Amino acid sequence: MTTNNYQPTDIDDAISVPPDLSIFTILRLGLFNLGVGLMAVLTLAVLNRVMITELAIPASIAAGTLALSQLVAPIRVWLGQLSDGKKLFGFHRTGYIRTGIVMAGVTILIAVQLVWILGTNIEVNNGWQWNPVTIGTSVGLGIMFILHGIALGASSTPFTALLVDISEEESRSKIVATIWSMLMVGIVIGGITGNVFLGSLAVGEMEENPLISVADLQTPINMLFLLVAGVVVILAFVGTWNIEKKYSRFHLRASNEAREQNIGLRQALRVLTSSRQTAIFFFFLMMVTTSLFMQESVLEPYGGDVFGMGIGETTLLNSFWGVGILLGYSATGFLVIPRIGKKNATRIGCLLVAICFVLIIFAGLTQNESILKGTMVLFGIAAGITTIGSLSLMLDLTIAETAGTFVGAWGLSQAMARGIAIALGGWVLDIGKFIFGSNLWLAYSSVFFCEALVALGAIVLLNKVNIKEFKESTRKATELVMEGDLD
Q: Which end of the chain is more exposed for a tag (fewer CB within 10 A), N or C?
C-alpha cells in the first residue's frame, strides 16, 4: 500500500526510467503542432482576409481584435508555472494541453459567429457604422480573441514544457526539428484545405459579382472552421495519448522537496530571475525573433514596388521561404547540431540570416527576381537553423521543477518580439520613404539592413549565454526557495 507522501527511492528511479522516444512517437506527438498550424491559417489568413476584404470591417477593428490574442502572452508564465505545480486530470502537462486546445476551438467558432453579426450589420447599413450592435459585437469579438490567446497559451506552453520532460539534452534537437517541421506542414495543409473549401467562391475576384454576401460566405466558412477545429482537437488528443504517462521524466528530475511541496508562482518567479543568464537569453530570443520577422509586413510590398511583381508572384515568395525553412529544420536537428553543437549552429544561423538580408538588398539593386527567389530559399534555411538552434538552447535553459515557468518566459519573449518586429518593419519603411523619397529600393533596404544588424547583435548576446552557469545558479536558487531563504 502506498500513500500520497511516498517518495521514490534511487532503486525505484533506476527501475522506472522511461524509454526513449521512437521516430513514430515523435511524429505522433508532432500532430499537436500540425493542428496548431491549421488553427493559425484559420485565424491569420482566412478570417483576417474575410473580415477586411469581403465584409469591409475596418482593418483597425479586424487587426486590433486579432492582435489581442498575442497581447495576452504574459499569462504564459503563470500558465506554465501552473502546469509545473498543479496536475489537471491527473497530469502535469496533458490535461492543460487538451483543455486548452478544446477551448481554443470553441472560442474561434464563437468568434466566427460574431464576425457574421458584424458583416450582416454592415450589409444592412450599406457600410460600417458605429452603433450598439457594432460596438457590442466588436467588444465581444475582442474578448473571444483574448480567451483564444489564453487557451492557446494554456495548451502550447505546457506542450513545450512536456518536450523538456520527455527528452534528454542529446536528443532534443531532433525532437524539436521534427515537431516544428510538423507546424509548417500544418500551415501548408491549412492553406490547401482553405483553398478547397473557399476556392469556388473566388473570394473578392468574381467579375460578375465582386461583392459576396454574408449568406454566401457563411455556410462554407462555418463548415471549414467546424471541420478544422474538430480535426485540431482530435490531433491533440491522439498526439499526446499516453506520452506523459509513459515517457515523462518529470518525477525523476524534480527534487523530492519540489515533489512534496509545489513551487508557487511567486517562488517560481524568484527562480526565474535568479540568474543573469535568464535575462541574457530572454533578450537574445527577442533579438533573434525581431531579426526574422521585421520583414513579414514589407516583403510582399517590396516585391511589388521594387520588382514590379504581381500579387500571385509575391505570394509565392512565402513558398520559397517555406521550402527553405523545412530544409533548415531537418538539416539542423539531424545533421548540424549533432556535429557542431547548439550554440555554434545558432551562431551560424544568425550569421546566415544577416547575409541573406544583404543578398535581398542586392537583388533589389539588380531587380533580378531569380536572385530574390533563391535568396528566400536560403533565408528559409537560415531561419530554420536559427530557430531549431535557439529552441534547443531554450529547452536546455530550463529546469525540471519550473520547466513550465521558463517556457512561459521564453514564449513571452518571442511573442513580444514578433509583435514589435512587425510594427518596426512598417515604421522603419515609412521613415525610409520620408528620408529617401521616391527611391523605394533604399527605403525597403533600410528595413533589411536593420534586420541584418539585429541578427549580428543577437550573436553578441549568444556568446554570453552559458548553460552551465544557468543550471548551477537556478538549481541553487530552487534549493533556497524550497528552504525559504531566497529574498
A: N
Query: pTM value?
Result: 0.70
CA distance 304 to 188: 23
H or E segment at 43?
none
If one counts every other C-beta atom within 10 angstroms of the C-beta of residue 439, the result is: 12
* 292, 170, 267, 411: CA torsion to nearest 10: 20
User: What CA–CA distance (Å, rounded) separates 316 from 318?
Assistant: 5
Distance of CA 211 to the CA centre of its chain: 34
Task: For residues 199 and 190, give the distance between their C-alpha atoms in angstroms, rounded to a whole number.
Answer: 13
C-alpha cell at 419: 509583435
* DSSP structural state of residue 42: I
Alpha-helix runs per DSSP H in 337-402: 337-340, 342-366, 369-396
3-state secondary structure of 87: coil
Reported as a single tens digit per residue, the pLDDT across 145-166 is 899 989 988 898 888 888 888 8
The one-letter amino acid code at 156 reads S
Reduced to 3 states (helix: H, G, I; strand: E, B; else coil), residue 417 is helix
CA 177 – CA 334 distance, rounded (Å)? 8
- Spatial contact of 35 and 100, defined as CB atoms under 8 Å apart: no
449: cell is: 539592413
**Segment 97-154, tens digit of pLDDT:** 999 999 999 999 999 999 999 988 888 888 888 899 989 999 999 999 899 989 988 8
Dist CA 81 CA 404 (whole Å): 5
Calculate the CA 429 to chain-centre distance: 25
* Domains and their CATH numbers in the chain: 21-248 (1.20.1250), 261-487 (1.20.1250.20)
Q: Are 319 and 191 in contact (CB under 8 A)?
A: no
CA distance 349 to 79: 31
Q: Over the range 319-333, which residues count as b (16 or more CB within 10 Å of their CB) and which as e?
A: ebbbbbbbbbbbbbb
d(CA 446, CA 435): 10
Amino acid at 335: L
List C-alpha distances in Å: 378 to 57, 185, 300, 373.
Answer: 37, 19, 17, 9
* Alpha-carbon span 159 to 230, nearest angstrom: 19
pLDDT tier for residue 207 given thresholds of 50, 70 and 90: very low
> What is the residue whose three cell numbers read 551560424?
348
Residue whose entry in the numeric block shows the C-alpha cell 546566415: 352
Q: Using CA atoms, how far apart are residues 241 and 245, in angstroms rounded to an integer? A: 9
Cα distance between residue 171 and residue 153, in whole Å: 25
Question: In which residue are the cell numbers 524509454 written?
Answer: 19
Q: 476: buried, middle or exposed (CB in 10 Å: 19+, 13-18, 0-12)? A: middle
pLDDT above 90: residue 89: no
